[in-house]
Amino acid sequence: MSGEIVDLPVVEGQMVTKGQVLVKIRPDQYVAQLQQSEALLQSQVGGEQLAKANYDNSSSTYKRAEELHKKNLMSDQDLETAKTQYQVTKAQYESAKANVAQAQAQVAVNQDALNKTVIHAPMDGIVSVLNSKLGERVLGTSFTTGTEIMDIADMHSLEAQVDVDENDVILVAVGDTAVLSVDAFPNKKIKGLVYQIATSGTTTGVTIRTPKMPEGAKPENINMKGQATREKAQEVVFAVKNGVAHTAVVKRGISDDNYVEITSGLDAGQEVVSGSFVAISRELNDGSKVRVENNKMVATQAVGGGS
């Protein structure tokens, strides 16, 4: 809504509850519009009542004319005149009803506009940003974004937008657990869950939601946009023993396009599982049963406890 701010009972950083009054805009213009539309509605209701009376009268007259005409007591011309009058008053009555419905809709629109001059908090939270002051004019219509008076932040949880490299995103799935680090709390680790994954170009935007806000956190000192980092990981392979795959921590030596030297972690001649990156990293688990099929090692059962 557009108008002058006449009441601003909150300050930046203040906690608010759902339904609490945040802003009041001068309502004079909207009160006048509502009163005008209500007066028009009353006039249209009166017009509808008059049109209905004329319609009821012409309907009765037309029915009597039909009875008299059947008894040859009325001419064809008089019957046609009664019929025409009936049709005219019927159309006028239908038009009057439509006018009333239109006036009622306008009253509802103006009442809604008046109600919006008082803005309430949509949820419990904190006034994280307050852009407007008492006495300033704000602008808001159905066709423009309007003035941003304030921001209300939900302090019960956090939502982080993280960029993940295309080489790493295949390891991420909705529902995965994530650990967030925030500059404002360098010694705290915040646990969250991957909520959404959206790919764009060479990076993927991953949305992570946390169940609660860190104690003492304020919206102005938390920037929940960042870059995902990969923690230092051990190099492992899946070694096969008695038809079951087990993870084995190894160290690599020299390698070429086809072979990799393992300097520790495996015994000479020990069987290992090979396959695609996705199959090894996500589908095969420590303790999975495997078998040789067409000279290839394949998993027959996946169990809990990923590598």
Relevant terms:
five-stranded mixed sheet; four-stranded antiparallel sheet; alpha+beta; elongated; Elongation Factor Tu (Ef-tu), domain 3; 3 helices; single chain
Please outline the major beta sheet. 5 strands, mixed
Mean pLDDT: 83
Which residues form runs of ≥5 with pLDDT under 50?
302-307
Query: In the residues, how many domains can be counted?
Result: 3
How widely separated are the two ends? 57 Å
Rg, rounded, reads 38 Å
What general outline do the C-alpha atoms trace? elongated
Number of strands: 18
Oligomer class: single chain
Structural class: alpha+beta
Task: Summarize it.
The protein folds into 3 domains: 27-116; 158-227, Efflux pump adaptor protein, beta barrel domain (Elongation Factor Tu (Ef-tu), domain 3), CATH 2.40.30; 236-301, no CATH class. The chain is built from 3 helices and 18 strands. It has helices at residues 28-70, 76-115, 277-283, and strands spanning 3-7, 15-16, 21-25, 118-120, 125-130, 137-138, 150-153, 158-165, 177-182, 185-200, 203-210, 225-227, 236-241, 244-249, 251-255, 260-264, 289-293, 296-301.
Q: How is the secondary structure organized here?
A:
Layout: E1 3-7, E2 15-16, E3 21-25, H1 28-70, H2 76-115, E4 118-120, E5 125-130, E6 137-138, E7 150-153, E8 158-165, E9 177-182, E10 185-200, E11 203-210, E12 225-227, E13 236-241, E14 244-249, E15 251-255, E16 260-264, H3 277-283, E17 289-293, E18 296-301
Helix pairs in contact: 1-2
